[in-house]
Each structure stands twice: as C-alpha cells, then as structure tokens.
Amino acid sequence: MSRKIVRLTLDNMDLLPDPCRSCMFWELDPVRRGRLAADETACEKESWVSHVLREWGSCGRVAMVDDEPAGFLIYAPPRFLPGADIFPTAPVSPDAVLLTMAYVDPAARGGGIGRMLVQAMAADLIKRGGVGAVEAFADATGRASHSRVPAEFCSRVGFKTHRAHPISPRMRMELRSALTWKDEVELAIERLLGVVRPTPKTQTPPPVARSAGTDVTP
C-alpha cells in the first residue's frame, strides 16, 4: 500500500468529495453565501483557492492511498475566511492560522491518515515561518458535519481547548511544541513520498601518531 500527501491545487480540486468540493461555509459571510445559486458554488470554491494560492500559498493537503484520495484538510489565515466570524468563540488569535475542514474517508479511518495530514500541515507552516499556532472552531456535538472539524479529532492530533464552549470550542495547536518533533515529521513525510534518508554513519577518527619518547596527550 502506497501513501503520500500532496498539496491542494486547482489541478486536483476534483479530488475533494462532495459536498466539500463546493462548500463555501467558511469562505463567504452568510449574506454573500445565501446569494449564491447551487450551480455557482463549485466555481466560487475554485476562485477562492486560486485567490489564496496567489496571496498566501497552498491552503490544503490531500492524502492519497494507492493513488486514490483518502482524506484532506483545508487551512488559511482568518482574513480569507469571513464565515468564521459567526462563532461565539471568535475571533481567531492573531498569531494563528485557521483549520476549517478535515475529512478522512470512512474506509481509511483508523490508519493514521488524519494525523499524517495534520503533521504535513504543521510542517508546511513551520517551514513558512511567522505562524505561531493552528486553531479550529471545533464541533463538540458529536454529530457528523461536512463543514466542521470534530472536537474529538482535534484532541487526538494535538489540539487543546483554548476557549471553551459546549458546541463550538476554539481549539489550538501550538507550532512551537511541534518543533520538538520536526525531524520526525520530515522523515514521516519523506516516507510518504517514497524517499527515505540514509542514517548517517559515525566515523571513527584516525589514530594519533606517537613518536618514541614524545608525550602527545592533549
């Protein structure tokens, strides 16, 4: 079984499952979202991804198992996500990027795909710099939702409650804590991509030459 994590781009938007492929819950405020016709949402989603790619960079990761999509997540700075303003635990902290959606195909759950996606996101943000944390307006109700990340999932992959709420807690994962396993993340990603770094061998220094009657002790 081969696994890899790829960037979300306009070329692979069709890998996202419906209705996530056209969901604009986060990308538009409620008024503008309500004005969209059903057949316009997919184009709007592509336009949003294109805008974020130009202004900030890649805003998502997709997990591939045997060349088939098995899960994805989407994240971006809160300025690109006006839909987040409706939550009672808003706003997002000034140093944080917002994780909006995370999904793993039911057939692939239990195999660590979700954690791999989160680690790939963390590695991307650490490499970019200037981001202190990832936050999410999690869903604490336990109901399946296509537009919210379950609080239980967030807890499993390293998020902690930052502002409590019975329905929409704001949860946070500090990237500075992720730095302690940065090498582990990079190695995991390389393995997902099929590249394994060789372990460096410890070289023994050559023996120090000694002359008769000469003390060469340092």
Write the layout of secondary structure elements.
Blueprint: E1 3-7, H1 30-34, H2 41-55, E2 60-65, E3 68-76, E4 96-104, H3 113-128, E5 133-137, H4 151-156, E6 160-163, E7 170-174, H5 175-178, H6 182-192
Parallel strand pairs: 4-5
Antiparallel strand pairs: 1-2, 2-3, 3-4, 5-7, 6-7
Helix pairs in contact: 3-6
Keywords:
disordered C terminus; Aminopeptidase; 218 residues; alpha+beta; 20% strand
Quick gist of this model?
The chain is α+β, with helices and mostly antiparallel strands. It contains six helices and seven strands; from the N terminus they run βααβββαβαββαα.
Task: Describe what you observe in this structure.
- By secondary structure, the protein is an alpha+beta fold.
- It has a single domain (3-192), classed as 3-Layer(aba) Sandwich (Aminopeptidase).
- The protein contains six helices and seven strands; from the N terminus they run βααβββαβαββαα.
- The chain has helices at 30-34, 41-55, 113-128, 151-156, 175-178, 182-192; strands at residues 3-7, 60-65, 68-76, 96-104, 133-137, 160-163, 170-174.
- It has a seven-stranded mixed sheet with strand order 1-2-3-4-5-7-6.
- A hairpin with a 6-residue loop joins strand 6 (160-163) and strand 7 (170-174).
- Helix 3 crosses helix 6.
- It is globular.
- 31% of the residues are buried.
